[in-house]
Design a protein that fits this description.
Elements (H helix, E strand, L loop, with lengths): L2 H17 L4 H20 L9 H14 L3 H18 L26 H14 L2 H13 L3 H5 L6 E3 L4 E5 L8 E4 L4
Antiparallel strand pairs: 1-2, 2-3
Helix pairs in contact: 1-2, 2-4, 3-4, 5-6
Length: about 180
């Protein structure tokens, strides 16, 4: 199969993801994963139009030998699963051996300690730029993701005499939510 055919399959796959409402982040990640897989397939004598169970299993082995962790391999396998369904070849994914993900305790991400936080706030206040000050304070005290902060509009912010809130319209997974504003 030619490179053009694989490129057409990938283009169709991307259009299908977008038509089904996948988030731009998911489309970008799956595109990268499928392109990497396609390149690996070409180097190993395969192609996307004639995908086999052996191709997928050997790719999993390759990822393990390359040092990819089990969570990374599971994510790549998820993208390959969506591709296989798109190609109408879901059956090739049965009995694929993948490394087991060890359950870990969910620990909150490390946040800045008080001195680090104060240093950041002090530096931004020294600039005197009110917009930047507002952005940094909002980011530090609200718990928003950077992508959520960037997508805020003025009408998403509601400030009352004793309270306030933000409406995050496109959060993770395109889920909207309301975030209370802190008193500080």
């Amino acid at each position: 199969m030619t490179e053009k055919s694989d490129a057409k399959i990938i283009e169709g796959f991307i259009r299908d993801l977008q038509a089904k409402g996948s988030s731009p982040g998911t489309v970008k990640t799956y595109t990268r994963i499928i392109q990497e897989f396609s390149e690996w397939l070409k180097r190993n004598g395969g192609d996307l139009s004639q995908l086999t169970r052996i191709d997928v299993q050997q790719y999993i082995h390759y990822l393990e030998k390359k040092g990819n962790g089990s969570a990374t391999i599971q994510n790549k396998f998820a993208a390959l699963s969506v591709l296989a369904r798109y190609l109408g070849a879901s059956d090739i994914l049965q009995h694929i051996r993948r490394p087991e993900i060890r359950k870990t305790r969910h620990i909150a991400p490390k946040s800045l300690d008080r001195n680090e936080r104060n240093r950041v706030l002090r530096e931004v206040e020294r600039t005197g730029n009110r917009r930047d000050i507002a952005i940094v304070y909002l980011f530090v005290y609200s718990g928003l993701r950077v992508s959520e902060l960037v997508n805020l509009n003025r009408e998403d912010v509601v400030i009352r005499e004793r309270s306030g809130s933000l409406t995050v319209r496109k959060g993770k997974g395109n889920v909207a939510r309301t975030v209370p504003l802190p008193v500080e």
